[in-house]
Amino acid sequence: MNGITRRYGDVVALSGLDFEVPGDRYIVLLGASGAGKTTLLRVIAGFEEPDAGQVLLDGQRLDGVPIHQRDVGFVFQNFALFPHLTVTDNVAYGLRHRAERRMTDPAEVTRRVKDMLDLVGLTGLGNRGIGAISGGQRQRVALARTLVTEPRIVLLDEPLGALDANLRDRMCEELRAIRQRLGITFLHVTGSETEALTMGDEVAVLSGGRIAQCAKPTELFARPVSAESARHLNAWNIFPGRVRDGVLSTGAGPLPMPRPLAEGSQAEMAIRFDQIGVCLPGQAPGGQDHFTARYIAGEFNGSTALAFFRADDGGLVQVVDHLGAPRLPDLREGEEYALYFPPTEALLFEKTPS
């Protein structure tokens, strides 16, 4: 995709977006609600046309090409199944009714549908009605209906959003396994950073109508290249401030910078939740940068626990503790603590004037 722009009146959903999706990969597009994730999928699929830019697939331009000629599969968030048809007839629908390369041999349709139901784990359920199967099975039917037409790329619009937590975890593994067996590209959009990091061979962060970063999950999580990327991961505390006397003056107090910036310039410092330690004021270990904040509450999440603090300006600071190797002291609500971190782990992003 080169320079894709899509507007809705005065609202710019996509702004000169450049994005290359590699073949034979599971790519996840991560963005907040309203970031333009679904718009981008609809532009690729042909449900909408861009106001500017080009969409290309294997070097072939797609913008302006009718939907049925794009060879692009789309799995909708609500599955969009036909409730009056059986599982088999839902999966066979595209083969029987597509505008081009329509399949008229009943035996071939039956074979293709059976193979696809076996692939997605629905063996023996072909004669059931859509109302007689579970949410996870409907998800598989929607996927099978898309895959049976052998598209060159499959677009998935928040495909796990309608499933409960346990089923989402199972479907994450199954979607990745199915994609790997087929050897085609999946482009999956989500607002969940956990889902994105779990699913993606690569994760692209969509922010401000553009791709802020595209990287392997481990790289993205450990070293986001911008504050926009860091915010989408729900793992980094972001401290905006201005450079004064060689330090970053923030709402949490003056923070030493990992590299020098010009006096008076604006910047944001990011410190990951699990890189922050907690101790009594005045007891921060040597070689660690620190600031003070007041403990307000904790949240137990099974294998981890989150501790929430208020900085001097009222901003929320989060610290994560892994219960298999706890490292935080007993915390008392309303008490002030020193929050310390290794200087090498703080990321500094200079803000460029707009």
Report the count of strand segments: 21
> What spatial form do the alpha-carbon principal axes imply?
elongated
In DSSP terms (H or I, runs of 4 or more residues), the helix count works out at 8
Helical residue percent band: 10-25%
Biggest pleated-sheet summary: 6 strands, mixed
CATH topology of the largest domain: Rossmann fold
Summarize the structure.
The protein has 354 residues and is of the alpha+beta class. The protein has helices spanning 37-45, 87-97, 106-119, 135-147, 165-182, 193-199, 217-222, 227-232, and strands spanning 2-8, 11-17, 26-30, 52-54, 56-57, 60-61, 72-75, 153-157, 185-190, 202-207, 210-215, 236-244, 247-250, 253-256, 266-272, 277-279, 289-300, 304-310, 316-322, 336-341, 347-350.
Give the tags.
alpha+beta, OB fold (Dihydrolipoamide Acetyltransferase, E2P), 5-stranded antiparallel beta sheet, 21 strands, elongated
Describe the protein's architecture and organization.
With 354 residues, the protein is of the alpha+beta class. It has eight helices and 21 strands. A hairpin with a 5-residue loop joins strand 18 and strand 19. The chain starts with a strand and ends with a strand. The relative contact order is 0.12.
